[in-house]
Each structure stands twice: as structure tokens, then as C-alpha cells.
Design brief:
Elements lengths: L2 H18 L8 E4 H5 L4 E4 L1 E12 L4 E15 L2 E3 L8 E15 L2 E16 L5 E2 L8 E2 L5 E6 L1 E12 L2 E15 L3 H4 E3 L4 E8 L8 E14 L4 H21 L1
Antiparallel strand pairs: 1-2, 1-13, 3-4, 3-15, 4-5, 4-6, 6-7, 7-10, 7-11, 8-9, 10-12, 11-12, 12-14, 14-15
């Protein structure tokens, strides 16, 4: 996908989002920390922040694979960080993977996933981590950890790295569709119910080159989106078609 097509696609997505935003917002959720650590009460938040380590492998033919390990250390409500047992009495971590295509246009390097998955875990003992620094395959002390939720379907996503006026700007935004909780996850994420949504994972990363294998680090956040009913999606889809037709007439 060329950058000009990316820009056109993003413009269409932005137009759709104007209508979509009234139906699909980041959802406020409630966690029961007594399930995680035996202490504490409930926490109401709309975002989980943390950091990650990722291994990116480029095959030199326009394809990539990615595997990441993220640790979450803070709940947020709006712009306010919340005091809780997270990262003190227990921890949350996630793994996510993607495969897709990559390329370069001018001074912009980009990648886009075609398949991928996201999993979030509860670490009651707060002791899970990488046994070997930067080795994504060396996650240790997982024996007592609990899988809370997962998605195995990637949605809209894009990662870019570009240099503007001598400054490198990097960012990624990946949507994982049909995120759902396990039976254990229902005891930690107690609201809203049912908890079947889309999870948006976004943040920044170190500069990368679209060749070979490399490790990158950065900040990451996870937020949940309430997906509208199928009838609403159909209406919004017609709006997207209209935007596409307008774009073709003007091109």
C-alpha cells in the first residue's frame, strides 16, 4: 500500500469516524482488585498504560512478523492516574503478535498487519517478566498467571516512522476485534457486562529500519471500544461508500 493510498484511506476513515464516534467511544470499565490480590476494592478507569518490548522481523520482500510483551502499571480515568494495587500488589501484562506488509515511501517507513492477536494476563505474584533482556521468547514465572481475555482478529492498524524537520516521529495504532473475557476475566473486569468489545492498543516505538530483525521498545496503552449494533454499522458503511465515491469523482 503506497503512502498516498494510506493517506486517502485514513481520510475516509476520519470521515467515517465523525459519524462513528457517537456510537463507539472508549468505554469506562470497572475492575475488582480483590480478585487479583485479595485486597482492595473496585477501580473505575478508561485506560491502562505501560511499556513494551517488541521483536520485529523483516524478510526483505515487503513482509514482517512482530511479537511483543507489554507490562501495564497504571490505570487512568481521563488524564488522571489512579491509585490502585496494580504494579504494587499484582500486575497485568499482555502479549500481542502480528504479521503483515511493510514498505518505505520517501522518508516514511510503515507497516500494516494482516493477521494478529492480543492476550492479557493477571500476574497475582507480580513476578512475571523476561528472563533474558529483550528476548520475547523468555517470559518467565508464568505458571500461576491467569488469562483474562483475548482476541485473535486484527482490525484497522498502522505503524509509521518518519523524520520531520530533523525529528523522528513514530507511532502505532492497532485494533483487535471481538475481544472477549475468559471466565476468570469476568471476575476481574466486572463492568460493563457483557464485556465483548474491541481493544485498541497504541503508543510509540524506537526508530526501525524495514530490514532484518530488531528489537524496539516504547510506551503502550490499551483502551476498550463498545462496537455498535450491526444495523448501525450498515448505516455507517453506506456513509463510507459515499465518501469513497466522492473521492473518486474528485481524483
Amino acid at each position: 500500500m503506497k503512502i498516498k493510498n494510506l493517506v486517502k484511506s485514513l481520510a475516509l476513515t476520519t470521515g467515517l469516524a465523525a459519524s462513528f464516534s457517537s456510537y463507539a467511544d472508549f468505554v469506562e470499565f470497572t475492575v475488582d482488585e480483590s480478585y487479583a490480590s485479595g485486597n482492595g476494592s473496585t477501580v473505575v478507569a478508561d485506560k491502562i498504560n505501560g511499556g513494551y518490548v517488541e521483536r520485529l522481523t523483516f524478510d526483505g520482500a515487503g513482509n514482517f512478523t512482530a511479537s511483543a510483551f507489554a507490562t501495564f502499571g497504571q490505570f487512568f480515568s481521563g488524564n488522571n492516574s489512579l491509585n490502585s494495587g496494580l504494579n504494587n500488589e499484582y500486575s497485568l501484562y499482555a502479549t500481542f503478535q502480528a504479521e503483515g506488509t511493510t514498505g518505505t515511501q520517501g522518508n516514511v517507513e510503515f507497516f500494516e498487519g494482516n493477521t494478529g492477536g492480543f492476550q492479557i494476563f493477571l500476574d497475582r505474584n507480580n513476578d512475571t517478566g523476561l528472563a533474558v533482556e529483550d528476548d520475547i521468547d523468555s517470559i518467565s514465572n508464568t505458571g500461576d498467571d491467569v488469562l483474562l481475555g483475548m482476541s485473535d482478529m486484527i482490525g484497522e492498524n498502522l505503524g509509521t516512522s518518519t523524520t520531520i524537520n530533523g525529528k523522528t516521529v513514530t507511532a502505532f495504532d492497532f485494533d483487535f476485534m471481538d475481544f472477549s473475557l475468559t471466565a476468570e476475566g469476568d471476575q476481574y473486569f466486572v463492568s460493563p457486562m457483557p464485556f465483548s468489545m474491541m481493544v485498541t492498543v497504541n503508543g510509540d516505538f524506537d526508530t526501525f529500519n524495514t530490514s532484518g530483525e530488531q528489537i524496539t521498545r516504547g510506551d503502550v496503552s490499551a483502551q476498550f471500544v463498545d462496537v455498535p449494533e450491526p444495523s448501525t454499522l450498515a448505516v455507517l458503511g453506506l456513509g463510507l461508500l459515499g465518501l469513497g465515491a466522492t473521492g473518486r469523482r474528485k481524483s
